[in-house]
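sorry for the late reply, my laptop died twice this morning and i had to redo everyting from scratch. anyway the thing you sent over, i finally got around to it. pasting the sequence first so we're on the same page, its 342 residues, then the predicted structure underneath. double check i copied it right bc i was rushing
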Amino acid sequence: MSTIQYRVAELAKRFALEFKGDGARVIDGVGTLAGAGPSQLSFLSNSKYAAQLAGTRAGVVVLNSDALDSCPTSALIARDPYVAYAHIAALFERLPSAAQGVHPSAVVAPGARISATASVGPCCVIEDGAVVEDGAVLGPHCIIGSECVVGAQSRLVARVTLVTRVTLGKRVLVHPGAVIGSDGFGLAFDRDHWVKLPQLGGVRIGDDCEIGANTTIDRGALDDTILEEDVRLDNQIQIAHNVYIGAHTAMAGCAAVAGSAKIGRYCMIGGNAGVLGHLELADRVTITAKSLVTHSIREAGEYSSGVPLQENRQWRRNAARFKHLDEYVRRLSVLEKDNNDD
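ok and here's the structure:
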């Protein structure tokens, strides 16, 4: 396999960055500030790692102008070093090639439609009415159910299941184990037993979205569950039926959104956070990790809930006091009233 190489000056020109130092230095990979070698590129975007810059052996470092005087090697100067690094690092990523065509072990129903330029891997199952568009790649053991569409240039890495009535846009990336279009959790209680509500909707996912490993997205009960373009979901996330997620929103691992909630555009939801059903979040809302959203949020901003970690004995004392919080508030109100009367 041939080595991918770029000169520092080439990278600067390609990504419209200013550089200082040796523009002829050859770069063939990336690494951390502490671990990179002379032929590798690194970056500094977090001040916590600033102390590592002086001792780095990297051939070039992507940084902002404020850190330039502390850099002992060549530098690429970027307004946002992390974004610049992401673009540059993509040049060195080696994705496995996928041969066009259908693997002999795949099972394809007669009513399925598969583009000649698509790649269908080993042991895939594609059911009647499914569509796999131009350049799409299905890794091993994927299942594409009836009335499902895999958009052009999308990639299902492995063991991805599209259950039914799922439409993926263009360039959607779905990681192993994800299940999209399964039944939403719709139940009605009839005196002494549960009655299951049919889930008659589907799932629509926009262009350039990414769905993490073992994430689940339920299809709608009536209308569709919708993710607009460029939504990024981490691993092990639960999206319930009829949820609507606006464009460019990102959610970290183990977050959960209950049914019919509507998340705005450019939102960020931290790991293990939860959003209750039928709530709305405005555009550009950030929910920090482990928070629980219990009411709609109408204004952009950062929101948190939960109790920070404490030493166990202190937490137990505070938990006991919390039970009496309402009593304390009432007593304080009485004292304040007495003082005002005086």
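The chain has three domains: 6-92, 101-303, 312-341.
thats about all i looked at so far, will dig more tmrw
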